[in-house]
TrEMBL record, chain A:
Boundaries of every Phosphatase PP2A regulatory subunit A/Splicing factor 3B subunit 1-like HEAT repeat domain copy: 288-369
HEAT repeat copies, ranges: 24-62, 101-139, 178-216, 217-255, 256-294, 295-332, 338-376, 377-415, 416-454, 494-532, 533-571, 572-610
The UniProt record lists the keyword Repeat: yes
The protein's name in its UniProt record: Serine/threonine-protein phosphatase 2A 65 kDa regulatory subunit A beta isoform isoform X3
Annotated PANTHER family: SERINE/THREONINE-PROTEIN PHOSPHATASE PP2A 65 KDA REGULATORY SUBUNIT, SERINE_THREONINE-PROTEIN PHOSPHATASE 2A 65 KDA REGULATORY SUBUNIT A BETA ISOFORM
Encoding gene (name): PPP2R1B
UniProtKB/TrEMBL annotation, chain B:
GO-annotated cellular components: cytosol; nucleus; protein phosphatase type 2A complex
Pfam family, one: B56
GO terms classed as biological process: signal transduction
Domain of life of the source: Eukaryota
Region span, Disordered: 1-52
Protein name from the UniProt record: Serine/threonine-protein phosphatase 2A 56 kDa regulatory subunit
Gene3D superfamilies in the cross-refs: Leucine-rich Repeat Variant
UniProt xrefs under InterPro entries: ARM-like (IPR011989), ARM-type_fold (IPR016024), PP2A_B56 (IPR002554)
Organism whose genome encodes this protein: Callorhinus ursinus
Length: 658, 486
């Protein structure tokens, strides 16, 4: 091996001798030039393979110049190219040659299409880290400067994203220049560039020295926050979060707060929306004192803003705002300064506002405690549970458990039960679904007797719902109930009702019986399954609807593991064999699937010695039959393979690093 | 506790009634409620309690020296805004303002010498106070301008009259741009342009005429207006993809381009290539394509040398999945071909006809049909005939193929006609191509195989390298030479 390395290592060797290299660059470049965009795209996506075939030398001298020249292409191809080049450092010969990648990326950073430009900037940021400090100043910083003073706005917007990556590693003189360039972009003539600068202002502030933040970033921030275009002003709000984190309380008060106050009352709703949307971040950034003095009043205004969009954004933040208040005095602040506004929002004219509030309002109960919740929040929950908009109702129901923890299920069910019963028949199926999912918890807390009285009939009614998702959820719900209340309860209350549906004229209801049996058999155990369920399933094998028949086959496969040899041999097998001759292809298919599973099961039962090992033996996993029902079954099967895979990958990476 | 219970009770009563209605009706009810929503509510933020208006004497009853003073008073009175969302409040004051605005419109359009220098400030102030406002959020975030009804401006009864007044003011023979430019400045125009995003088509229509007049009368603002429109378009294309007034702005630009002096400035060419052409990528192209195509053709009529870059630009942005847009592109290409010079045609015939050949074999019959209609155009036909040696080999393959395979009988019939026309243009070439068709197909297949082979080899090489890297610490050069020795 060492000997073979000799002749090839000379720099010109591969380039000079055409026969020596496997694939002449012309062929590869031909691929990149193909008329079909899709093929060009495929080639670009495999650019690393091409570079690998060419070797680092020819990649630098031939491939990269070619790529730099062919920048005029479909945006989709350019996007793939920009992405590839970000990971190319190794393929051009490592960090010493990383700067070779700058010319093509520079051109890509100037194209019109935003997606391409952003990707090029991302790759440039990545590559910047691979430059040595010297190379950074020799190659990267000049590129940033060129972009920052480009004629067309695209290059200037791209430049905005590159300042923060080169600033920390530049010398002081260069730092001053970089700041100067950033300053001029913040007051650029084109709003697109100002937007780009505003969106990177916070990021840039973080890498600057504190003095420069105060003397340079703050004035830029103030200017951008009072830009004539609201699209620029709203981005300044985002920057405010980062800047506020850097400053002391006094500096904050003097330098940032006047601007933030102004933003919270901006004439454009977009800016106010942004303040509402970033409220929690702002709150954390400015600290508790300013929050109490400034942000709470601002928040109150946002909660009663004239635009629903702003109110909704603020309503979303209610819980986070309250959570982040200092524990001391929190309750008083919420009760006196927040709750009155929330009460107003419960009867807002806009459904999005109400729904936003409903998604967080329940979270307040843990903060306010039991008594306040019962006295002040519960009436609001009840009002929202009866809201005309289903989304509002849904948001309340799906968060009931937070309240449950605070006031206990008794109290909750007494107040909420009438509303819940009403919602169980809601016209929107998603609302019904949310209620069903809440049932097992409710049942567990209320006990069997209460459940049978008030809720059992609801649970049965859902089985014949006209929406499949509800019937499916209802089936799973029954299984969970049986696990809670035990088999005896199941045998007395659930199973008879389910089995009656087997002779329903509607085939969907008949299938529901089968689905229920699938779900319940394991929880109910061998006796109930064999004595009560199996006969019904077998009887249904003669159903006139094919869907029912193949579901019979599936059910038999499903309940097989619970049955004993006799039942399998004497009852299940003949029926499956008959279904295996069915005229319908699907019935035939599923019957044969089930037959082979049953056959395997029987073989295992014949040699009980092995039976004990089965669950742990990896080979047994292939047999679905042996491990019924567990949803984790499939993932279990894949885990060893995947972990092995990642291990070898990690190994490869490790070796490459060496 | 007691404070919160009454609203709860009231809400539940309201719900039980609406709960009985089925889901569909409720949706339509909600939609109707939404459509009643007012725009422009943002402007009432800062206003305190409403001042009640008191009617002023009629202008026509005043003496001529009182008239000017009264005119200004009326203008100031009209600066007060009313909330039209609330249809019962301030009814009397609203009516007074409406009547006053009507009177003002009539006053400036029928009388001469009433627009004196001192009035400009009040006039522009009144206009600004009424029309400049932050547009409210769109009611319907997935607003489809082709399908949905636009949200109409609630305060239209007043705003319409203000626009009317603005137009009469601009068009009055007494109007002097030299005085007005103190008030109608860059900031004013900037705000005016932002209003083009209004969802109300009536408002955009007024704005279009207003901006057109301003562009015509204020020479100093022209470059600024073009630049701002430029920015709006770039933002529309690359940032938001949403702006309601694109068609209106393009319509104004159409007339602006028409008046460009020759030779075209670099700035204008850049606008064509970097703004108008990329605009074809917009999702809602259908809403403004007619105006856009008009602008493009205007440019080409001014300067034919732009034809090649324009057509190459369109080919670059040719829609890949949206058939509706493809039909629009084909329409635009035909408009361009209608005015193309034969020398320019030669420059782009190859890439263009490669695209047309793809369109002709589109499985969407409207695309295929639109492309095949080119052969009904006398001028295009003559261009094809002149260059038949180039075009026939490009077109032949797909035409031949669809004549046998296309699912739509109309397309097949059209293709037969096209083939016949082409055959008549150069029978010998046609025969040659028919003869070599099969061999051509086979060569393509072989090339395809070669490509697959190439990539397979490259993949193997990559795998081998990865393996060797793991096995030894050799650098890339040694590996390359090692594998290539084999």
């Amino acid at each position: 091996m060492a000997g073979a390395a000799g002749p090839g290592t000379g720099p010109g060797a591969a380039g000079g001798d055409g026969d020596d290299s496997l694939y002449p660059i012309a062929v590869l470049i031909d691929e990149l030039r193909n008329e079909d965009v899709q093929l060009r795209l495929n080639s670009i996506k495999k650019l690393s393979t091409i570079a690998l075939a060419l070797g680092v030398e020819r990649t630098r001298t031939e491939l990269l110049p070619f790529l730099t020249d062919t920048i005029y292409d479909e945006d989709e191809v350019l996007l793939a190219l920009a992405e590839q080049l970000g990971n190319f450092t190794g393929l051009v010969g490592g960090p010493d040659f990383a700067h070779c990648l700058l010319p093509p990326l520079e051109s890509l950073a100037t194209v019109e299409e935003t997606v391409v430009r952003d990707k090029a900037v991302e790759s440039l940021r990545q590559i910047s880290q691979e430059h040595t400090p010297i190379a950074l100043e020799a190659h990267f910083v000049p590129l940033v400067k060129r972009l920052a003073s480009g004629d067309w706005f695209t290059s200037r917007t791209s430049a905005c994203g590159l300042f923060s990556v080169c600033y920390p590693r530049a010398s002081n003189a260069v730092k001053a220049e970089i700041r100067q360039h950033f300053r001029s972009l913040c007051s650029d003539d084109t709003p697109m560039v100002r937007r780009a600068a505003a969106s990177k202002l916070g990021e840039f502030a973080k890498v600057l020295e504190l003095d420069s933040v105060k003397s340079e970033i703050v004035p830029l921030f103030t200017n951008l926050a009072s830009d004539e275009q609201d699209s620029v002003r709203l981005l300044a709000v985002e920057a405010c979060v980062s800047i506020a984190q850097l400053l002391s309380q006094e500096d904050l008060e003097a330098l940032v707060m006047p601007t933030l106050r102004q933003a919270a009352e901006d004439k454009s709703w977009r800016v106010r929306y942004m303040v509402a949307d970033k409220f929690s971040e702002l709150q954390k950034a400015v600290g508790p004192k300013i929050t109490l003095n400034d942000l709470i009043p601002a928040f109150q205004n946002l909660l009663k803003d004239c635009e629903a969009e702003v109110r909704a954004a603020a309503a979303h933040k209610v819980k986070e705002l309250c959570e982040n208040l200092p524990p001391e005095g929190r309750e008083t602040i919420i009760m006196n300064q927040i709750l009155p506004f929330i009460k107003e929002l419960v009867s807002d004219t806009n459904q999005h506002v109400k729904s936003a509030l409903a998604s967080v309002i329940m979270g307040l109960s843990t903060i306010l405690g039991k008594e306040n919740t019962i006295e002040h929040l519960l009436p609001l929950f009840l009002a929202q549970l009866k809201d005309e908009c289903p989304e509002v109702r849904l948001n309340i129901i799906s968060n009931l458990d937070c309240v449950n923890e605070v006031i206990g299920i008794r109290q909750l069910s007494q107040s909420l039960l009438p509303a819940i019963v009403e919602l169980a028949e809601d016209a929107k199926w998603r609302v019904r679904l949310a209620i069903i999912e809440y049932m097992p918890l409710l049942a567990g807390q209320l006990g069997v007797q209460f459940f049978d009285e008030k809720l059992n009939s609801l649970c049965m009614a859902w089985l014949v719902d006209h929406v499949y998702a509800i019937r499916e959820a209802a089936t799973n719900n029954l299984m969970k109930l049986v696990k809670k209340f035990g088999t005896e309860w199941a045998q007395n209350t659930i199973v008879p009702k389910v089995l009656v549906m087997a002779s329903d004229p509607n085939y969907l209801h008949r299938m529901t019986t089968l689905f229920c049996i699938n779900a319940l058999s394991e929880a109910c155990g061998q006796e109930i399954t064999t004595k009560q369920m199996l006969p019904i399933v077998l009887k249904m094998a003669g159903d006139q609807v094919a869907n029912v028949r193949f579901n019979v086959a599936k059910s038999l496969q499903k309940i097989g593991p619970i049955l004993d040899t006799d039942a399998l041999q004497e009852e299940v097998k003949p029926v499956l064999q008959k279904l295996g001759q069915d005229e319908d292809v699907d019935v035939k298919y599923f019957a044969q699937e089930a037959l082979s599973a049953v056959a395997q099961r029987l073989r295992k039962l014949d040699s009980p010695a092995k039976d004990g090992e089965e669950p742990s033996a990896p080979g047994a996993d292939k047999n679905h039959f042996l491990r019924p029902g567990g949803p984790g079954e499939d993932t279990g099967k894949f885990v060893p393979l995947m972990s092995r895979h990642t291990e070898s990958e990690r190994l490869g990476w490790f070796l490459r690093r060496q | 506790m007691s404070s919160s219970s009454p609203p709860v009770g009231a809400a539940s009563a309201a719900i039980s009634a609406s709960e009985k209605v089925d889901g569909f009706t409720r949706k339509s009810v909600r939609k109707a409620q939404r459509q009643k929503r007012s725009q422009g509510s943002s402007q009432f933020r800062s206003q305190g309690s409403q001042a009640e208006l008191h009617p002023l004497p009629q202008l026509k009853d005043a003496t001529s020296n009182e008239q000017q003073e009264l005119f200004c008073q009326k203008l100031q009175q009209c600066c007060i805004l009313f909330d039209f969302m609330d249809s019962v409040s301030d009814l009397k004051s609203k009516e007074i303002k409406r009547a006053t605005l009507n009177e003002l419109v009539e006053y400036v359009s029928t009388n001469r010498g009433v627009i004196v220098e001192s009035a400009y400030s009040d006039i522009v102030k009144m206009i600004s106070a009424n029309i400049f406002r932050t547009l409210p959020p769109s009611d319907n975030p997935d607003f489809d301008p082709e399908e949905d009804e636009p949200t109409l401006e609630a305060s239209w009864p007043h705003i319409q009259l203000v626009y009317e007044f603005f137009l009469r003011f601009l068009e009055s023979p007494d109007f002097q741009p030299s005085i007005a430019k103190r008030y109608i400045d860059q900031k004013f125009v900037q705000q005016l342009l932002e209003l083009f995003d209004s969802e109300d088509p009536r408002e955009r229509d007024f704005l279009k005429t207003v901006l057109h007049r301003i562009y015509g009368k204020f020479l100093g603002l022209r470059a600024f207006i073009r630049k701002q429109i430029n920015n709006i378009f770039l933002r529309f294309i690359y940032e938001t993809e949403h702006f309601n007034g694109v068609a209106e702005l393009l319509e104004i630009l159409g007339s602006i381009i028409n008046g460009f002096a020759l030779p075209l400035k670099a700035e204008h060419k850049q606008f064509l290539m970097k703004v108008l052409i990329p605009m074809h990528t917009a999702k809602g192209l259908a809403l403004f394509h007619a105006q856009l195509a008009y602008c493009v053709v205007q440019f080409l009529e001014k300067d034919t040398t732009l034809t090649e870059p324009v057509i190459r630009g369109l080919l670059k942005f040719w829609p890949k999945t949206c058939s509706q847009k493809e039909v629009m592109f084909l329409g635009e290409i035909e408009e361009i071909l209608d005015v193309i010079e034969p020398t320019q045609f030669k420059k782009i015939e190859e890439p263009l006809f490669k695209q047309i050949s793809k369109c002709v074999s589109s499985s969407h019959f409207q695309v295929a049909e639109r492309a095949l209609y080119f052969w009904n155009n006398e001028y295009i036909l003559s261009l094809i005939e002149e260059n038949i040696d180039k075009i026939l080999p490009i077109m032949f393959g797909s035409l031949y193929k669809i004549s046998k395979e296309h699912w739509n009988p109309t397309i097949v019939a059209l293709v037969y006609n096209v083939l016949k026309t082409l055959m008549e243009m150069n029978g010998k070439l046609f025969d040659d191509l028919t003869g070599s068709y099969k061999a051509e197909r086979q060569r393509e297949k072989k090339k395809e195989l070669e490509r697959e082979e190439l990539w397979k080899k490259l993949e193997e090489l990559k795998l081998k390298k990865a393996l060797e890297k793991q096995n030894s610490a050799y650098n890339m050069h040694s590996i390359l030479s090692n594998t290539s020795d084999e």
